[in-house]
Design goal:
By secondary structure, the chain is α/β, with parallel strands linked by helices. It folds into four domains: 9-72, DNA Methylphosphotriester Repair Domain (3-Layer(aba) Sandwich); 75-168, Orthogonal Bundle (Arc Repressor Mutant, subunit A); 186-246, Double Stranded RNA Binding Domain; 264-344, Arc Repressor Mutant, subunit A. Helix content is 45%, strand content 11%. The chain contains 15 helices and eight strands. It has helices spanning 9-18, 58-63, 74-93, 100-107, 111-122, 126-143, 148-154, 160-167, 175-179, 217-223, 234-248, 264-274, 284-290, 297-305, 332-344, and strands spanning 28-31, 36-38, 52-55, 67-68, 186-194, 197-203, 208-213, 228-231. The strands form two sheets. The protein has a four-stranded mixed beta sheet. The protein has a four-stranded mixed beta sheet with strand order 7-6-5-8, with helices on both faces. A hairpin with a 4-residue loop joins strand 1 and strand 2 (36-38). Helix 6 packs antiparallel against helix 7 (148-154) and helix 12 (264-274) crosses helix 14 (297-305).
């Protein structure tokens, strides 16, 4: 099934039995004995398993001779998804803020109803999505080395103060430092031995910005080429010990401050990873559903791989749908050991 490769039919059946609305739009459930197809969340009585076949879309189900359930209206969902796609296209094309009322009018829904549709599909309200889009545009412009002020206005901000308010508490780097690859920012770092191997820990004044295995100063400098890299330090030693303790006992250390930055989508994935209880795992499809974008399975996998802070943002808790470990930036051995330690706590 397109964009849900890590969902097999057994998992789809479990989702349908749980009536999990997070997977509405990812697939439809066809009931051959009645000739209808439904959303996974349909409240109707569960059919017998031998009568069920799963389809990627309403179009596929209808091509097989099935008709839409009148109770859960899965065909209506296609229209809803089209409305959200049209709104996203408009927001990406325009550099100006678009009021909710205008978006709703363009898509034929009431503002309140469209707000619910948009948030369910994207994971953010239209206003929050537009703020995230402005931040990303500003980041792209700054990374190209242009003027900070020009980048701010080009991204759609009404002025510098709005940009700085929008970025408050999101990163320890100022906009100018961000544009110059961390210039003017001090990053303290150390490489320590752990029972999982050599570990690099680096932090700004806000929190940990890099945690990795089998890396050193050269790798860190590639990520922050213009930052002032300082090895060790008194204040840093306390934070370093907290990180080591959290790695040796994975599942602890949730209060350790982080300084990470990504796209709005990446940050939503990282937040979802931190919400997985220690000792449990999730599939990429479940992560995508958790952030309100159930079809973005591959993008969730990419965001998982873009995580700069291993263990503290527990990307090791994402496994394949068949339960196998899958990939990990630092090797499957470390991933298995982290999962083993969490299960044994």
């Amino acid at each position: 099934m397109d964009n849900s490769d890590d969902l097999d039919d057994d998992r789809r059946w479990q989702i349908a039995m749980a009536k999990d609305r997070r997977f509405d739009g990812v697939f439809v459930t066809g009931v051959l004995s009645t000739g209808i197809y439904c959303r996974p969340s349909c409240p109707a009585r569960a059919p017998k398993r031998e009568n069920v076949r799963f389809f990627a879309s309403p179009t596929d189900a209808e091509a097989a001779g099935l008709r839409a359930c009148k109770r859960c209206a899965p065909d209506e969902q296609s229209r809803e998804e089209g409305a959200v796609r049209d709104a996203l296209s408009l927001l990406k094309q325009t550099g100006e803020a678009v009021p909710l009322e205008k978006l709703a009018a363009l898509t034929g829904y009431s503002p309140a109803h469209f707000q619910r549709l948009f948030k369910r599909s994207v994971g953010l309200s239209p206003a929050a999505y537009q703020r995230a889009l402005r931040r990303e545009r500003a980041g792209d412009a700054l990374s190209e080395g242009g003027s900070v002020t020009e980048a701010i206005y080009e991204a759609g901000y009404s002025g510098p103060s709005r940009f700085y308010d929008d970025r408050k508490d999101r990163t320890a780097m100022s906009a100018s430092a961000w544009a110059r690859g961390g210039e003017g920012v001090t990053i303290r770092w150390a490489v320590v031995d752990t029972t999982l191997g050599s570990m690099l820990v680096a932090a700004t004044g806000k929190g940990v910005c890099r945690l990795s295995f089998n890396e050193g100063e050269g790798d860190l400098r590639e990520r922050f080429p213009n930052a002032d890299l300082v090895e060790g330090g008194g204040d840093f030693s306390d934070l370093l010990q907290q990180v080591v303790d959290a790695v040796e006992t994975p599942g602890t250390g949730r209060d350790i401050p982080l300084d990470v930055r990504g796209t709005a989508f990446q940050e939503a994935v990282w937040k979802a990873l931190r919400e997985i209880p220690a000792g449990e795992t999730r599939s990429y499809a479940e992560i995508a559903a958790a952030i309100g974008k159930p079809k973005a399975v591959r993008a969730a996998g990419s965001a998982n791989g873009a995580n700069n802070v291993a263990v503290l943002i527990p990307c090791h808790r994402v496994v394949r749908s068949d339960g196998s470990v899958g990939g990990y930036a630092y090797g499957p051995g470390i991933k298995r050991e982290l999962l083993k330690r969490e299960r044994e706590q």
